[in-house]
Structure formats: C-alpha cells, structure tokens
Specification:
The protein has a 4-stranded antiparallel sheet. The N and C termini lie close together (11 Å). The protein contains 3 helices and 4 strands, in the order βαββααβ. It is globular and about 35 Å long. With 97 residues, the protein is of the alpha+beta class.
Length: 97
Amino acid sequence: MYGTVAQMRVQPGRVEDLLHQLAQFEEIEVPGYIDTYVFQMDEDPNELFMAVAFADRESYQKNAEDPEQDRRYQAMRQLLVADPEWHDGEIVWTTEE
C-alpha cells in the first residue's frame, strides 16, 4: 500500500466544511483508493492531520495527476490557512489484510 500524510491548518470555523468536502470524496469511485483518516489535534482544533491510503503507488500517482482531483484539492485549499505539508510514502505495516 501507498499513501500520504498531510498536516493542515484550517481557517477558524471551517473544519466542518472541510470534513463535508472529504465526505464527498468518499462517494467517488477512485481506483486503488482504500481509506482516509483525519485527526483533529487536542491543543488546536483547527490543526488536522490526514492520512490517505491507496492500494499501490501507481494508483496514488494516477489520482494525484487527475485534473478532477486537482479541482477537489483547490476547493479544499480554499478552507486552509496555508498549503498542507505532505509526506508521501509506502505503508509498511497495518492491521488491515
């Protein structure tokens, strides 16, 4: 599996809007997409960490290069204070089979 972890700072009062956008992504059939987890930090509820998993690097890259995905990213970016900090990599352990 392959994926990314993003650190994001959401504009005050916009966390629910961001979560709504992410829920819409779940309705789209993206080849290789497995799941997304979003963590809201205790110390700052406007700071989120998001982990996204794909079956493999190729499906992750294909999604990242999709113009529709860029459109969704740009809509999400409007809710953030700054660009997310992305960390891509191979998922080397999980309890999922």
